[in-house]
Amino acid sequence: MNYTDNPVESAGRAAGICYDKEEKEDYASFIKGIVGRGHESVIEHVTFTFRVEDVSRALTHQLVRHRLASYSQRSQRYVDEGEFGYVIPPSVLESREAEEKFKEVMDYTLERYNELKAMNVPKEDARFVLPNACHTRIVVTMNARSLRNFLKLRMEKHAQWEIRQLAQKMYDLAYAAAPPLFEDMQALRDTGRES
Ligand SMILES: Cc1cc2nc3c(=O)[nH]c(=O)nc-3n(C[C@H](O)[C@H](O)[C@H](O)COP(=O)(O)OP(=O)(O)OC[C@H]3O[C@@H](n4cnc5c(N)ncnc54)[C@H](O)[C@@H]3O)c2cc1C
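# flavin-adenine dinucleotide complex -> structure
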């Protein structure tokens, strides 16, 4: 993960412009107070960039619905998926029979994908047979306000398990970098419920 240098001070200095008070001894309390009162635009000056790997396309379909963010995703038009990896949901792994059936479909799909390419079907068309489970990688940049909205929706207990796990990991990284911007969400991260 990359993020704006000195995130709390950066947001604090931006907020200080509003009141002609950029120099502060305690940026953390200042930012917590101001964000707590709903003046959230000041944390838009802080951004976080995450590189996300080996998640499913089912996850990234959900991720990119968050419009206030920037994305760059591995392309299935240009990149060959002839040896694709995939995510197996935990519910499938609970049963050996379900796991076998799941893997059968993945193997079958992989073979047909490679056969289509061998018949000169371009990658951008052969990819139509690829599964939602297919591994992908994506870089996402969000400002802190948008990230908080993402975390609120995707760490919540109704969120789908894979994106919820991702949101919890993103929370842990963002919290470690800028505790005052995220510490009010710790209970949500741990229980899926707002405190
Ligand atoms: C548990 C769960 C289930 C879901 N199920 C479905 C589903 O079945 N089908 C489905 O299609 N989607 C579903 N979604 C996706 C959801 O509807 C949102 O598209 C997604 O969570 C992005 O949230 P967002 O719009 O707040 O984020 P962003 O797009 O990042 O927007 C951030 C904020 O900006 C504001 N904003 C952005 N664009 C506009 C706009 N055009 N007009 C007004 N305000 C705007 C809003 O305040 C918004 O909260 C689900 C999401 C969750 C968490």
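# post-check
The pocket of flavin-adenine dinucleotide is lined by residues 65-68, 146, 149, 153-154, 158-159 (CB under 6 Å).
The domain at 2-72+135-191 is CATH 3.30.1360.170 (Gyrase A; domain 2).
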